Amino acid sequence: MNNHKNGLIGYACAYTPLVLLMAAGFQPYRVLPLAESPEKAGLHLHDNLCPHVKRILDRAMAKELPEIAGMVFMNSCDAMRRLSDAWKVVRGSDNSYLIDLPVITDEPSIKFFAIELRRLAAKLEILSGKAITDELILKSVYEYNGLANALNKLAAKVHAGMSKGGQAALQAAFNEAATRPVSEAVKYIEDLLSDMKAEETSVKSPAIFLFGNILPDKDAFELFEDCGARIVDDDLCTGSRLFQIIDITDGDDLYTSLSRSILNRRSCARTFDNTYPGKAALNIVQRARACNADGVICHTAKFCDPYLARLPFIIETLKKEGIPMLMLEGDCTTRSIGQHRTRIEAFIEMLG
Predict the structure, then answer these.
(1) What is the pLDDT of residues 42-69, one digit of tens each?
(2) C-alpha distances in angstroms, 348 versus 83, 229, 325, 341?
């Protein structure tokens, strides 16, 4: 039996196989770098390390997290692996699991990740005292996809200008979906959808495609809009990239199918196509064109090695395509995004 009071399992990466956590009877809980905890992560992590993982560790050290049964870490980058190591020091009594995540999506990688998913499932079965059957996984996939569909509908209406709250309200919905039980999150989103007007508002401010990694603070999106930006689509780890439809392929065993769907989802900078390393830049161009964006804003956490490696080619490609781009970096605090106000205003004025 699961004896943990809240039945929460923490996670910190969009590649986390949430349906396995759900199938084991736990509620996935994304540990977002939102709380203004005292900055103590430097006691265990290098100062020039991703502020996303440092803010998560700050929350753990400040005991600002709800009671969790365990924590699942994806070995998605060196910083996340360092967080997994530090977590064992700071919260040694937690059940923590580090799952290796391939950087490419070929068949050997899919088979390897399927083995990793089975390994996680076995650990979760021990923790919960509950067998994870194929039926429970399929039920969780159905519930998860229902949440993803609801968020897709909400995003479409927000980007069409049918929500007074704009992208800030959408980000609040993403945060709720990442931290609430699925049924509660779906109800929350359905209530938002029912309050929206049927007619589209006429908006003439510049359309922006926003991409990057971590940006969960809705105040950041309010700042973008205060500066005159109209976000018409996003590609963020804490935004639309987190909840993507899981397709179960006929003919595959269930774990292989789950592995294939997760690895082939819309990727971040740390995952790439080894047959075309520059595909990330092409994807951004295509997304920007598809939403008729006037310009592109990239917002990344400082010291993010995967994005630092990809950005030069992305910037060069956007320049060749004639798509204006603004590059911003932050440290997962409200003050850091506020420091960019003048640059954002100047960029929007240029587009106007």
Answers:
(1) 889 998 899 999 999 999 999 999 999 9
(2) 37, 6, 10, 11
pLDDT digits (tens, 9 = 90+) for 201-226: 555 789 999 999 999 999 999 999 99
d(CA 231, CA 222): 11
Q: Which of 242, 307, 240 is nearest to 280 (CA)?
A: 307
Output the pLDDT for position 198: 54
For every residue of the chain, which 3-state class applies, written as one string? CCCCCCCEEEECCCCCCHHHHHHCCCEEEECCCCCCCCCCHHHCCCCCCCHHHHHHHHHHHCCCCCCCCEEEEEECCHHHHHHHHHHHHHCCCCEEEEEECCCCCCHHHHHHHHHHHHHHHHHHHHHHCCCCCHHHHHHHHHHHHHHHHHHHHHHHHHHCCCCCCHHHHHHHHHHHHHHCCHHHHHHHHHHHHHCCCCCCCCCCCCEEEEEECCCCCHHHHHHHHHCCCEEEEEECCCCCCCCCCCCCCCCCCHHHHHHHHHHCCCCCCCCCCCCCCCHHHHHHHHHHHHCCCCEEEEEEECCCHHHHHHHHHHHHHHHHCCCCEEEEEECCCHHHHHCCHHHHHHHHHHHC
What is the spatial distance between Cα 261 and Cα 247, in angstroms, rounded to a whole number? 6
Nearest CA to 123 among 97, 85, 101? Answer: 97
pLDDT recorded at residue 270:
86
With a cut of 70, list the residues of the chain below it in pLDDT: 1-6, 198-203
Tokens of 334: 């409200």
* The token pair that represents 241 in the structure block: 């990239």
What are φ and ψ of residue 337, in 5° steps? Answer: -70, -35
Sign of the alpha-carbon dihedral angle for 152, 156, 162, 163:
positive
Structural tokens at position 49: 């390390």
Tokens encoding 110: 């899919």
Through-space distance between the first and last CA atoms of the chain, rounded to whole angstroms? 60
User: Two tokens at 14?
Assistant: 């969009």
In a 10 Å sphere around its CB, with 0-12 CB exposed, 13-18 middle and 19+ buried, how is residue 225 labelled? middle
C-beta separation of 159 from 232 below 8 A: yes
